[in-house]
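User: Now give one protein:

AI:
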Amino acid sequence: MPILAQPHPLSQRPLRGSHKMVLFYRGPEARITHEVFESTRHHQVFAIHELEFVHVVRPDVIEQITGSAPIRVCSTGMAGLSVVLATLGWPVLGHPSVTMVAIVMLGASSSLSAASWHLRHRPLELRAVHGGRLVCLYRTTNRRTFGQVTRALLRVLEQLDDMR
């Protein structure tokens, strides 16, 4: 029988006079309550009130543009069209310059297409400062789950601010 990972004891007990724990998010990789952020993947538990400068690591503008769906689709299509033009340019059209331009376009569009498909799978990160050092709270390539975790932590932080 396999041994299943047990949640950290800190995340199971109510703290500071609270009899019930408010659960904001529970998933296979993270659990967020009103007092702790628990990463089940990295087996880390952070007290919410100890987190500072919580932020999402955002890609720069070039990565956002290169990784976008229109660039990915168009560069892949252009690579395919360039192969056809490079193959048929000189023999069918009788112009070697068409073949040369198609080969250059094939190289450029293939490079852009490869970069775009690679950036699509880049992980999203949620970071914070904890105990004076920068820590990665959560990391995934799943945009939906990342959005859910981020919104849950934001709700906890807003609730904490309202109580102060």
Remarks:
- Confidence is low (pLDDT under 50) at residues 1-15.
